[in-house]
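hey so u asked for the seq, here:
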Amino acid sequence: RQRFGLGRVSADQNRELGYELRAGVAAAWGKYLIRRRSSELPVAVGLSVNREIPVDGKTTTNLEALLAFDWARFSYDFPKTDVEVISLLYVGLTDWGRYRADIDLRISRELFSDFTLALKGYYNYDSDPPTEGAARDDYNISLGVGYTF
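ran it, structure tokens below
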């Protein structure tokens, strides 16, 4: 089946972007644009409701439109390789003109039998952070090694 439903519950803290807590729920309906043995690309659209407690300011409840992409490419033979990019775009409905983006990246590559090297990163953007003077974007990249036994 190429269509699917998506539910999401989240709770985040990011003082860099000006909030102590953003808790939300989302529901979306999606379709696989690509679904093969070695890659997939599901796309979903829906609604999200969240409650934000800013570092400085008053608590707000936001209704947003949600657009989600999750591109993945993988191989099962040596060297095993996995690449995944998850993108979530939120467009403000109660706070018209505000938009947010969350992008997560994960790449792992088997260097030799069962030993992998992984790179993970994220980028978050908010066009109108809930705390005045807060940064509009935040990012992180980390490197890891792993062994499967």
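The two ends are 34 Å apart (CA to CA). The chain has a mean pLDDT of 94.
lmk if thats what u needed
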